[in-house]
Specification:
Radius of gyration: 18 Å
Largest sheet: 6 strands, parallel
Strand content: 5-15%
Shape: elongated
CATH class of the largest domain: Alpha Beta
Structural class: alpha/beta
CATH topology of the largest domain: Rossmann fold
Number of helices: 9
CATH superfamily of the largest domain: HAD superfamily/HAD-like
Strand order of the largest sheet: 3-2-1-4-5-6
Helix content: 25-40%
Number of strands: 6
Order of helices and strands: EHHHHHEHEHEHEEH
CATH architecture of the largest domain: 3-Layer(aba) Sandwich
């Protein structure tokens, strides 16, 4: 059967981390807060409002937190104008478009950022929907965003394939009861926790959608535990 394929965005299709870091420096710098690489790393993974609150709690900033958050998101959207796809991303999206029933992006980034990234890379017409977990009570590794996306697309969890790069994203997909293709960064590839994924790939260039049928409803248990490296 044709699966519903749910892609992560940041770190999988694009490398957006430098863009987010630059946007935060651009907005916080004029307020007197100059973020070092170590300071950026301390808040990585937090949702934007929590990151902004973190620095407002630790520095005297003459600004409105909501406005600062909006300015950072706007700066990221501008920065995405020149973003390039990660190796294999175009292949993976095109291959899944040919073999899936529906496709969506499920990301913790704000929806405006997701849409700006897809428009900039030319992938905006490849996906049926986008889902942001920015306003969810719980973010990845909670499975809520993936379950919400599946329900909106009329698919049961065992009809879905999640494609993720981060461990939190893999945990979210597995917790949702979905097959998960993990594409970790080289530095994380030896992390044994990625073994919970259905497939582990070195690159999106290695994605072979002919194997999808074995990993959605109707696939054998043995096939569901295979891995590719």
């Amino acid at each position: 059967m044709q699966p519903t394929v749910l892609f992560d965005l940041d770190g999988l299709l694009i490398d957006s981390e430098p863009i987010w870091d630059a946007a935060k420096r651009e907005v916080f710098g004029p307020l007197g807060l100059h973020l070092t690489a170590e300071m950026q790393a301390a808040t990585r993974g937090l949702r934007q409002r929590d990151m902004v609150a973190h620095w407002f709690d630790r520095a005297t900033l003459e600004a409105d937190p909501d406005e600062v958050e909006q300015q950072i998101v706007a700066a990221v959207c501008r920065g995405l104008a020149g973003v390039v796809l990660k190796p294999g991303a175009e292949h993976a999206v095109a291959a899944c478009a040919r073999t899936s029933r529906a496709m969506a992006v499920v990301s913790s980034s704000p929806e405006s950022v997701i849409r700006a990234a897809l428009a900039s890379t030319g992938l905006d017409r490849s996906f049926d929907a986008v889902f942001s977990a920015e306003d969810d009570e719980h973010r990845k590794p909670h499975p809520g965003a993936y379950l919400r996306a599946a329900a909106a697309l009329g698919a049961s969890p065992d009809e879905c394939i999640v494609i993720e790069d981060s461990l939190n994203g893999v945990l979210a997909g597995v917790s949702a009861g979905m097959a998960v293709v993990a594409v970790p960064e080289a530095a994380d590839r030896c992390d044994p926790r990625y073994a919970i994924a259905t497939l582990v790939l070195e690159s999106l260039k290695d994605l072979d959608t002919s194997a999808f049928g074995a990993h959605v409803s109707g696939g054998s248990q043995d096939a569901r535990r295979g891995s590719v490296s």
